[in-house]
Amino acid sequence: MATVRQAQAWLVPDGAAAEGRELALSYRWDADYPRRDGFAEFHLDLPPPLAPGPQALLLTRTGNQFEVLVEDAVIYPKNRNYPSAWSAGGGVGRPIWPTIR
Asked: How many independent structural domains does the chain possess?
């Protein structure tokens, strides 16, 4: 198992200047922009698979709206219906298993 600990990010807080920078993961939006809406885009360089076969990607603290792309192909579209436990602010929902073809 490999762990990605850094990402290139584009941070766009409402009412403030957008900025691009390298961030340590897990990044906490509220530490930099308390009580401010906006969005972040993270670009991850994934290591090559350690073995042939299916691969997994665990994304924690994604908030309630996110989209996952692999090489510009959407594998998990934004604005899907989330489990009620997730959207109720508990931050815990069922695992999401997008298919990568």
From this structure: 2
Residues with Cβ < 8 Å from 26, sequence gap 6 or more?
A: 60, 61
Looking at the structure, do residues 65 and 93 belong to the same domain, yes or no? yes
Banded pLDDT at 84 (limits 50, 70, 90):
very low
Residue 99: pLDDT band with limits 50, 70, 90: low
Range of the domain at 91: 56-101
Same domain? 65 vs 39: no
- Contacting residues for 75 by C-beta, under 8 A, at least 6 apart: 68, 69, 98, 99, 100
For residue 6, the cross-strand partners are: 24
